[in-house]
Amino acid sequence: MKLYKVWTLLCCLLLASAFVVGCGSEEDDEHDEHDHGEAFDAGAMLDNFSNNVVLATYTDLDNKAGDLLAAVKALEADTSQANLEKAQQAWKATRTPWEQSEAFLFGPVDTQGLDPALDSWPVDHVNLQSVLDSNDALTVDFVSGLEDTQKGFHTIEFLLFRDGNQRKASDITDRELAYLVSTTENLKASTAQLRLAWAPEGENFSNTVAQAGTGSTVYPSQSAAVQEMVNGMIVIADEVANGKISDPYNESDTTLVESQFSFNSISDFQDNIRGIQNVYMGKFMTDGQGLNEFVNGKDAELDARFQQEVQAAIDAIGAIPDPFRDSITANRGAVQTAIDAVSKVQQTLEQDILPLVQSSEFN
Amino acid sequence: MRYFRKLFYLILLVSILLTACGSESPVVVDTPPVFSTSELSGGATTIFDASSHAFSIPAPNLSPAALEKHLDGDVEFEAVFVTAPAVVNPGLGPIYNNVSCINCHSRDGRGRPPGTDEGLVSLLFRLSLPKTEDAMDGKPPIPVPGFGTQLNNRAIINASPEGKVKIDYTEQTLTTEDGTRVHLRYPDYTFTETYQPLPEAVEVSPRVAPAVFGLGLLEAIPEDVILAYADETDANGDGISGKPNFVWDVVEQRYTLGRFGWKANQPTLLQQVAAAYNDDMGLTTSLFQTENSAGQPQLTAHSATPEVSDEILDVVTFYVQTLAVPARRNVDDPQVKQGEQLFAEAQCASCHVPTLRTGVLTGVPSVSNQTIHPYTDLLLHDMGPDLADNRPDFHASGTEWRTPPLWGIGLVKRVNGHTNFLHDGRARDLMEAILWHGGEAEASRQAVEQMSKVERDALIAFLESL
């Protein structure tokens, strides 16, 4: 997890304060200087988070993956330019809930290896071409047995898009079509597995989170589960600010750009931050109790500021002229503004919201 | 929770001791206590985090420059390698076990054996031929022609994987003194689809990926501190020996103390990381310039320059040296305290040494001079025939294993979503792991078997607080 620059800063501040304080006061640590009022019952918030945000996002992802599968099958049956365009739109539509779900990359998506299965990068072009050039039957089983770097979103993207443009439908070979259908079947199987892992009729990880502190086998306290929520948001804010946008920007290297075949990068980044918004506001399809209510009860100013910062980050990313790969050199000011806006979100999460959670009493 | 205040006061306390008031020497613990109730498992590298990120956080005492280096290493630890030629991360294979560090060490945590219908992800198999003269000659294992010292079960297209492994478990029931029945599963491994026959006499050692946090602290423990715990001939007659492994250091070009790996067969984290790139991913470095597939038909081209640069090797090594150790939880809980007492009384702490003091690790001040609670002595112990891999490794016999650290063990479920323990993940929870202990730990296991349910629950509560 590449983040937590704030820890260093924090420790420097604490060290500095220690010097100021000087000798003698090291033993009064039982004194509670932070009075955050009575314990907060996070039960409703965690229930809403797991069911109405996480499970709802994964359900949407699985539905969209079903649409994508239908679209690539239609493309295989009739390889027209119109059908190619529909498949491309379906890919982008599936990408949206996935990128939003990156604000909670913990639990089954990680422990069942689904993140690499769905979203490995880079694509192994040499292996992919070898398979396409071979005589192997491109069945679902065969393609599912290949490496993650030859499957998932970016392999499908590579087969559907080139350099941000539509491929010519007539350029797509029969082997590519067969591969496309099989690898999309595999993607759909992964999204179904992910949805089921959180669903009541499946492994019900939603319940594991919602029952934190009251019988959950993973989260012995509500505090632990709320920390999980906040850390999930920190991870993606850090990833967007210091990885996804900064790496290609700092190196001026377009090969490092995410979703580089479709030029979908700006939507990807915005959806990542929308995922933070969803978790914080407790809202996906429906609006329920989010972290905002907890934060507001402790510090209304912080809540208002953070909501504004999240929206500002989404807007700043949206203000980068498309395609992102050109803007890393041509519009560096806009890119830097977006980095700063996302960094602000990360900073508030790390320096204000996580400490607030960690210092609060929960039921 | 008041984690931040506790961190604040820790730093306050240390700074006061280090600066104006009185002593100029740092906090020194002359005689480590038998056990400690301290939450600060990793000294000043301890992090307070109760989420699934608990193993993935940089040590909080890194300088800004060191943090930058750590974060660079983090990116490389997650880097996915692909078949050459490629623009990004080329050089994978041609035979390998996985495509990135993080894929085995998921969330910097502990791997597990595959479930039904899953392929091998974070479990691998070491192979060797038996030694004809002296099995305990202190030398490295003998490679198997055509396979080397590790089964690479994956390969790039047009190259043959070395084989697959089928795992079967046989259940056995063990009944403790108070009549509680515990089920243990005995693994049995069958190699299938090998690209050429494996010799009948092959020695096999299964290994799950260990967690990678806190490792710089273990590297910083002075050699004489570790050797002071060694008692190879059991001179004190407690039934527990403790033997150092001495293994080949490719940088120093001599035998040095082994610290890392399930049999302590790697002397440094640099060599551990380079060996993992080489053995697990088929990537060469300046330390191991020969492909893991050398001499085998899978290798058709060899890169003249190392596939992983010294710079990357350096930042990844630094990354695993500087991951924070998660703090203990519930240390004041009476049940946890009782369990801690029972842990000591059953002599568990004789090998799982609670408290050690680090020395200086050059270039890594954050892990230097720390009082830590790793619950290991980094020494080899005979664990009995049931756990034996029967594959000697330098000075480690076929029944000996290195005491694994226990810090963070109570968070594995949250971080990695499972509770599979021991070298091959056969134990499905902590109690099973305890009941597999034999050999030098025979008496300790029996002590646990004789405990009441209340006592065993307390023991587990203690372990889960780590």
Structure overview:
The complex is a heterodimer of chains A (363) and B (466). Chain A is built from 16 helices and two strands. Chain A is mostly helical and 363 residues long. Chain A has a single domain (43-205, 216-358), classed as M75 peptidase, HXXE motif (A middle domain of Talin 1), CATH 1.20.1420.20. In chain A, strand 1 (161-162) and strand 2 form a beta hairpin. Chain B has 466 residues and is α+β, with helices and mostly antiparallel strands. Chain B has one domain. In chain B, 25% of the residues lie in helices and 13% in strands. In chain B, the strands form seven sheets. A two-stranded parallel sheet of chain B has the order 1-10. A two-stranded antiparallel ribbon of chain B has the order 2-4. In chain B, strands 3-7 form a two-stranded antiparallel sheet. In chain B, helix 2 packs across helix 7 (310-321). The longest helix of chain B is centred in the N-terminal third of the chain and has 16 residues, at 3-18. Chain B is globular and about 60 Å long. At the A-B interface, helix 1, helix 4, helix 6 and helix 11 of A face helix 1, helix 2 and helix 9 of B.
